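Researcher: Please predict.
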Amino acid sequence: MSVLKRVVKPTTRKGKKILIKKEPQIIEGPKKTLFFKGRKCSENIRRLLKDFYDLKKPDALMLTKSNDITIFEDVTPVEAFSRKHETPLFLMGSHSKKRPDNLVAGRMFNYSLLDMFEFHVENCQNLRDFSSNKILLGMKPCLVFNGPKWDETEEFKQLKSLFIDLFHREEVDSIRLQGLEHVLSFTITDTGKILLRSYKVVLKKSGGRTPRVELENMGPNVDLTLRRSKLPSEDLMKEACKKPKELKAKPKKNISTDGLGTTHGRIHVGKQEINKLQTRKMKGLKKSAVEIMAKKMLEKKTSMKKNSKAER
């Protein structure tokens, strides 16, 4: 049985602009993250959600009410939140006897669940536990992933991609040294525990042109243990990562690049008559009067022979 999808047609100019804004764009802006609480939430998880919300502002939205959601059993309410608030990323905090200090992170594609991961939160240190200065609003962090396990299994590869989407902001072509103020470090231990650490970059005098760089712990610091995960199918992930045609680089004809990065070009030139090429006019290359007369006499004899052959 097929269900017909309702097509919403705008009746006003303002409504048309809103629908155009909701359509997929060729160049997407920073992804917005939704923060909300489950049926019950511990104080540690509340503070952690607030810290992540402060780091993500202004690309973040926090819901204050508690929500009776069991996300791994029914994800429909979260998909409705994503459609309503235009938030492709979400973080949900909850607490229960079976799963204490629980944190769920996930992302949407086309307002449907793409993937999500559930963590157990331990050894949480908040922003207010550190007396160091904090970063400015909207600062782009430098993400560092330590440990070979990030690229060993498909689950950790997908989790790394989620963390990049979660803390990534707009694309930049270049960055200056003074603009690098925040570092987020993700480390996987041999036991599979994920250590999240947040540092403020401090530039100090070194006596030379290059400053001395120090990392000052500013929080939040948290240890995460992976409980459950829901990975996307291969076809869905391929569709979510598909690039529009406008962003694909068009190959240029007769231009190639070798293994060393050198660009080679090939030019197609038609047949050329070397004798008729116009060269630089120099006094030494100028023909003398005798050569000019000899050339005229030769042309005259050639024309007379042609005429005599034609009369015969």
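Model: The domain at 29-170+177-241 is CATH 3.40.50.10480 (Rossmann fold).
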